[in-house]
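Justification of resources, computational component.

The compute hours requested in this renewal are based largely on the per-chain cost of generating structure records like the one below. Each record pairs the submitted sequence with a full structure-token output. That output is archived, and it is also reused by downstream analysis tasks.
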Amino acid sequence: MAYAIRPYADGDAEALSLVTLAAIATIGPAAYSQEQVAAWSARHIQPERIAGRVAAGDHIFVAVDNDDRPVAYVLLEKDGHVDMLYSHPDHSRLGLAGQLLAAAETKARTLGAARLYTEASELARPAFERAGYELGERRDFTIEHGNRSVPIHNYAMTKAID
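The structure output for this chain reads:
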């Protein structure tokens, strides 16, 4: 199957939300508990959240299949923050994360960002490392879910760009 990388298009929000939820639910348990996965997923249920980010000026690059169906994406904020990188489990480990991060880096340069930075999950960390991001500290925090504060972690990572 061939893939293409394109900018976000109107109508992508629902598909990107489903990509996110599938990735968290399927791949998440490899590094996080079921309680952590449930809390993480609950933060990404609303497709309008994605559309709202684009309306606010964030940039999303989408990997699509031969039928222009979204299978992975990256969200870049204007200051160089990579806020989301998700791939549907049926389309992971195919190099799409690297292609999406390259597209985000190119855009960040045009925006004048001096660096890229992110908070990578345990699972996304290797993709960011392959793309040249340097590992910072582990970030331990909680997500409010149900009646609990669920502990979870990710990693601060940065990449200087010219």
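Helices lie at 13-27, 34-42, 47-55, 96-110, 125-130. The mean pLDDT is 94.
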